[in-house]
Amino acid sequence: xxPFTLGHFSQVCCQLLNHYFGEIVGxxxxxxxxxxxxxxxxxxxxxxxxxxxxxxxxxxxxQHNLVKFEASERNNNIAEYSIIxxxxxxxxxxxxxxxxxxxxxxxxxxxxxxxxxxxxxxSASNVxxxxxxxxxxxxxxxxxxxxSALHQSFLKLAQDNFIIRCPKLADNANMQKVPTLxxxxxxxxxxxxxxxxxxxxxxxxxxxxxGEHGDSEVIWRVNHERFDVEMRNVILVNAAAxxxxxxxGELYHIILKLWRECSNPDSPTTNAxxxxxxxxxxxxxEGSSPxxxxxxxxxxxxxxxxxxxxIIKVGDAGGGQFILNYSTxxxxxxxxxxxxxxxxxxxxxxxxxxRLTRIQKFMEQDQMQNIAMIPAKEAKMFTYxxxxxxxxxxxxxxxxxxxxxxxxxxxxxHVDLPQQVARTALEASYKGLFNAMVRQMxxxxxxxxxxxxxxxxxxxxxxxxxxGLPEDELAYLxxxxxxxxxxxxxxxxxxxxxxxxxxxxxxxxxxxxxxYLKFSSMT
Length: 523
Description:
Layout: H1 8-21, H2 23-35, E1 38-39, H3 42-47, H4 51-63, E2 67-71, E3 79-83, H5 85-89, H6 94-104, H7 107-119, E4 122-123, H8 124-139, H9 147-159, E5 163-165, E6 168-169, E7 181-182, H10 196-204, E8 219-222, H11 224-243, H12 246-262, E9 273-274, H13 275-284, H14 290-294, H15 296-305, E10 312-315, E11 321-323, H16 326-346, H17 348-360, E12 362-363, H18 365-372, H19 376-388, E13 393-399, E14 408-414, H20 417-446, H21 448-466, H22 471-478, H23 483-520
Antiparallel strand pairs: 1-3, 2-3, 4-8, 5-8, 6-7, 9-11, 10-11, 12-14, 13-14
């Protein structure tokens, strides 16, 4: 780790770069995270790496859309490099991306996305060729995976904006020392004509490299913004399902798809949908359950009458007009998240004081303990604990009676949700995420030899079991690891699973708080 200090978010990014790309890329990334836009010749001096190592690290990060470059403001002939913070953090979400695509489409689309994530940037033909080879190896037979079917899967991903074209050299790039990259809006999700025949021929010949192909200059990458929207929608659908039941979650998923088609996903409020439009969409949806078709109106009424504001009714035309206010719904989700944090850290009485102060806006100490019905001593203790950890803020009001009398002041407690509390919880989430990642890496590194030994033994036993070796001989081989070693391996795997789950839950919390801060800043 470089000698300079990094915030918790930057530490998470450094850990991800180290894990996926190695220590050298992690060092260069850490320096760019700390210093922002820097020219190439500054990086070797600051990191102690050679110029060749720095160039290779930058090339890897540019290939994986983690670093961008632009001409320096002071000298147009010098390129300055900077980290794309969000893309680096999204390395943590790659497993979620793959699970999401498999759930929505299927295995072929999941393989396509996995290949594109591994390559960082690639042409459509190359991704299809590599995916066909992967499917061929997985099936372990002589039949060649049909590249035309993978082409259709690629078209689906582009049509739904999960992948996007990379910008190409501008027309005047040859006239500049530092080239500029651009892509037209109408071409971002347009897949050019692909020559499937040569790909199929190479697959039959068991080729490992695609070679020259017609669309080699049209490069694609993963569209992180589209995945952010989908993950955000998953949180809202799960909230509706928890609030009511799974059928309500199913209805809400259909409504969210309609809102996405007619509204800007970054707008704090969606366009209005009519009752008739929603009803037609439910009828046309092939996966709609009989319960939803029968009780559609009741489920819709429950959703828009609920205090969680998952749906807001704004008019009666067309059977009713419905919108989603992202600011309101994510404020409610953020409040629920913060309530859970306060409950776990300080207990139910502190939660009562926190909720009461948030609802009442401003309160004096005596008011808080009286309305919350908590003894004065405990109320003061919990109030100042919440104040110490930035969950409560104070505001002093002074009231002067005359020029000669002493000034009387009032101390009011309040909750500054967007500026203080949410940001404090977000920073704590990054800290917890970083600690979980470091602990997981420590456990796996310290016990690497034992885990490798266990993996080799399990592979050997599985192979011999398939060959029909007697169970007593398998048991004899299994005893090559002592009971203590097996117990330690089981404990490491269990701890690893818990840490992975903790990272996933921390990321969900981060997504809720970031979405709340994003939409609250727009209102």
